[in-house]
Amino acid sequence: MAPRGRESYSIQSVENALDVLEALSEEEGEVRISRLSQRLGMNKTSVFRLMATFESRGYVEREDGSSRYRLGLSAYEVAQKLLSRMDLLRKARPVMEKLVRETHEAVYLTICREGDVLFFDMVDTTHQVKIVSLVGRRYPQGQTAAGRIQLAFDPTGNADNDPELARIHAQGYCLDSNTLGDGVTSLAVPLLGRGGRVVGSLCLVAPDFRVSSDLVEQTLAPRLTEAGGIISSKLGYVGHLLEGGRGWEHN
Q1: 62 and 109 fall within a common domain
Q2: Disulfide check for 204: which of 54, 101, 106, 187 has CB 3.0–4.6 Å away?
Q3: Domain holding 19: CATH number?
Q4: 8 Å CB contact between 198 and 190
Q5: Residue 31 belongs to what domain range?
Q6: How many domains does the chain have?
Q7: Which residues, other chains included, contact 76 with Cβ-Cβ below 8 Å and sequence gap of 6+?
Q8: Virtual CA dihedral for 148, 153, 156, 159, nearest 10 degrees?
Q9: Per-residue pLDDT tens for 184-231?
Q10: Are residues 59 and 98 in the same domain?
Q11: Close Cβ partners of 157 (under 8 Å, ≥ 6 residues apart)
C-alpha cells in the first residue's frame, strides 16, 4: 500500500476503496473477494459492496457468472491518461527551459481538462519582478489565450464559424492582456499530436510593461511558435512551420 499522510483529513471509506484497488492491481490474474478480504483484514460484505461499485463504473470486471475479479478498462484508461500527461511533460520540459533562457520570461505547459484549461507545469523567469505561479489553476477554456488557442486549432471545434478563432488560427498564436490578472500579458501557441489533435498549449506569461508589440512580433511569437512546433513533432505531429514561424501547415 502507498504511504499515507495527513491522516486527520482522511475518509475511511475512500481509504478502504483505494486499498482494495491497490491490492487488486498487485495480484497476478483474477482474484476472489475472499482473498482480498483476508489480505486487507476487511469483512467480505464491505469488499463485495466496493467491488460492486467499481464494477458498475468499469474499474473492475469479471467473466459472466465468475466470482473472480480483475481490473477493468476504466482503471486502465485512468492510468493511460496519467502516463500520457507524464510523457507530455517529459518531452516539453527541455524545450520550455531553452525557451525561458532565450526569452527570459515564464513559460507554462497547459492542458485541457473538462472544458477548462489547466496550467500544468512552468519554467519560471529569472527576473526579480514576476507573476505569481499559476501552476494548478484552472480557467474556462474560452477565457485565456492558452485556452482560446486550443479552441482555434481543435479540428472538432467551431473555429470556422467563429471569426475570432479563425483569426487566431490564421495568426498561429493568441495574445491577450489582463485575463490572468491585472497587468499580465499571455501569449500562447498550440501543441499538436498525431493527426493534428490538440494536446495542449505553450503559454508565455509576463508583466505588461516588459512586453511590447514589437517584441511580440519580432521575438516572442516566432520563438514560442518554434518551441511549440518542436514539442508537437515529439508528440507525433507531422507538419511544418509557416513562414516567419507563424503556425503550422499539415502535411
Answers
A1: no
A2: 187
A3: 1.10.10.10
A4: yes
A5: 11-71
A6: 2
A7: none
A8: 70
A9: 999 999 999 988 889 999 999 999 999 999 999 999 999 999 999 999
A10: no
A11: 151, 165
Instruction: Give the tens place of pLDDT for each residue, 3-42.
Output: 454 455 568 888 898 899 888 888 877 889 999 999 999 9
Q: What is the 3-state secondary structure (H, E, C) of the chain?
A: CCCCCCHHHCCHHHHHHHHHHHHHHHCCCCEEHHHHHHHHCCCHHHHHHHHHHHHHCCCEECCCCCCEEEECHHHHHHHHHHHHHHHHHHHHHHHHHHHHHHHCCEEEEEEEECCEEEEEEEECCCCCCCCCCCCCCEEECCCCHHHHHHHHHCCCCCHHHCHHHHHHHHHCCEEEECCCCCCEEEEEEEEECHHHCEEEEEEEEEEHHHCCHHHHHHHHHHHHHHHHHHHHHHCCCCEEECHHHCCEEEC
6 falls within a domain: no
- How is residue 54 written as a grid cell? 467499481
CA distance 214 to 80: 42
- For the chain, the C-alpha Rg in angstroms (whole number) is 23
Helix 145-153 to helix 163-171 angle (10° resolution) is 90
